[in-house]
Amino acid sequence: MRIAELSHKSGIPVPTIKFYLRERLLPPGQLTSPNQATYGEEHLRRLRFIRVMVDVAHLPIATIRGVLKELDQPVVDLHHVLGSALSTTLAPRGAAPEETRRRVADLIARRGWCVKPDSPAAQALAEVLAAFTDLGVGDLADRLDEFAAAAERVAAMDLAAVGRRRTPEDVAYAAVIGTIVGDRFHLALRRLAHENASAAMFAVRAATFACGKEAPT
Amino acid sequence: MRIAELSHKSGIPVPTIKFYLRERLLPPGQLTSPNQATYGEEHLRRLRFIRVMVDVAHLPIATIRGVLKELDQPVVDLHHVLGSALSTTLAPRGAAPEETRRRVADLIARRGWCVKPDSPAAQALAEVLAAFTDLGVGDLADRLDEFAAAAERVAAMDLAAVGRRRTPEDVAYAAVIGTIVGDRFHLALRRLAHENASAAMFAVRAATFACGKEAPT
């Protein structure tokens, strides 16, 4: 298809597609004349992927380029590909204090989690625990093990859905989406659940809300 | 205390503190001479709060100003304050298709959730479900009700911890931190749980990882 049709089918304006081509997020089309190219279904699929990474996951272009590059390799080590995807959107800022880092290491040992000791997620968790303490709300993480158990259950469901794919490439593709877009999925669910719990606990105007059939009256 | 001591105690450089003063994130100190002011414990507390919102939650200055403004009001309606905090970091981009919006409305009804029909979280969830479908991985959300139930349990624990405070102002403060920094808390836990689940499912080099005592050998 021509670029105009690619634009029509993907809903992405032609200048934006040209930008993605220049930025090498999208491979070039097949030249049919010196200044005309045709594009295939894989271009359309990739454009949809880029659009979601920009619009829904809010990732910067450089990060998306890195993710695509990883997905373009033949997959020889799925755990490695997933590790890269997992790290993409969780860069810790600084070093957390020794005490909180030990608290995270203890948690990992208690849960029997098989994770790299220098995992960005472990660092990010230590950073968050330190922030809670600094702000005088350290008790928010008092039930750390229960929160960790909840995360385990969700991760098991996530991985089961991803693992149903036939080829390692399809698993990697689904895992990247499940990780990056999945963040927003779980965040939105948690926000809704919070809003509901807050209504039950604090609302003075609950009557103005739309409640489901099982809500207390 | 003088600004130099405030800087020392908070670990924030003097020019950055002056920037926060100019941006009205920090109220002015008490003038002791035409060009000298003193600052109190509430300035220190607020600086720590700003630093976490910048460094850990990565919020832009304008958003932090909005959150602080909300927290500075006397709290008459906790549910409203929490609602503002909940919406802060989850602005949906566009309108999701009617079909996914209906799917979210059905979920809310099934769970009996007491939430506003135009809730940003409901819109964000519809957007994510549409993105999964567009990308050909709609099955990632197949167990929507189980994911929702997991979010409910986490939200109940979150709210219980927040609700232990004595004054509505303290509840609001803890709830804002629990919501905004809590996002990163749960994200980090989920990432660790994913890394562990992926190691069990896909790793070809698991021996190079540090595993807890309960991990399979």
Detailed description of the structure:
2 copies of one chain form a homodimer. Chain A has helices at residues 3-10, 14-22, 41-55, 61-72, 78-88, 98-111, 120-134, 144-163, 168-202; strands at residues 30-33, 36-38, 114-115, 210-211. By secondary structure, chain A is mainly α. In chain A, strands 1-2 form a two-stranded antiparallel sheet. In chain A, helix 4 (61-72) packs antiparallel against helix 5 (78-88). The radius of gyration of chain A is 22 Å and the shape is elongated. Chains A and B meet through helix 3, helix 5, helix 6, strand 3 and helix 7 of A and helix 3, helix 5, helix 6, strand 3 and helix 7 of B.
